[in-house]
Specification:
- With 128 residues, the chain is mainly alpha-helical.
- The protein contains 3 helices and 3 strands.
- A 3-stranded antiparallel beta sheet has the order 1-2-3.
- The longest helix has 31 residues.
- It is elongated and about 75 Å long.
- The relative contact order is 0.15.
Length: 128
């Protein structure tokens, strides 16, 4: 084998070790913290959507008042809230994994659409 082949082989081995180590850190991190989920609620509090990053919603909760919207308006509201929940899930994934991966991998998450945006604020609820 030539020196170039040895160098390329060594670089491939090094890259493979980094991938395996990153995989282990991510798996350990997610096992400790549980699943990453995004959540969003409509302004009136009648529609709430929970979704994992990059997947269909895992929960859609409707309060009785949501049924007064009519089918088309309700469908539009669910889609709007689901989009906000998806952005929240992506941001949570990015922030969570950003703690255990190198900056290049974190940038790759953003390129995949998991932007490091601000966390979705919880709806304001007042009680005394």
């Amino acid at each position: 084998m030539s020196d170039l082949d040895d160098q390329v082989g060594a670089e491939v081995d090094r890259a493979n070790r980094r991938v395996v180590e990153t995989e282990r850190r991510v798996a350990d991190h997610l096992a400790r913290g549980g699943p990453v989920l995004g959540r969003a609620t409509s302004a009136d509090g009648t529609v709430t959507v929970v979704t994992p990053p990059g997947a269909a919603p895992s929960e859609i909760n409707l309060e009785p008042g949501a049924l007064r919207m009519g089918p088309d308006a309700l469908a539009d509201e669910i889609v709007r809230v689901a989009a906000r929940a998806a952005r929240d899930a992506g941001a949570r994934l990015h922030r969570s994994l950003g703690r255990v991966v190198d900056p290049g991998t974190a940038n790759g998450l953003a390129e995949l659409g998991f932007e490091p945006g601000a966390e979705e604020p919880a709806p304001e609820r007042w009680s005394r």
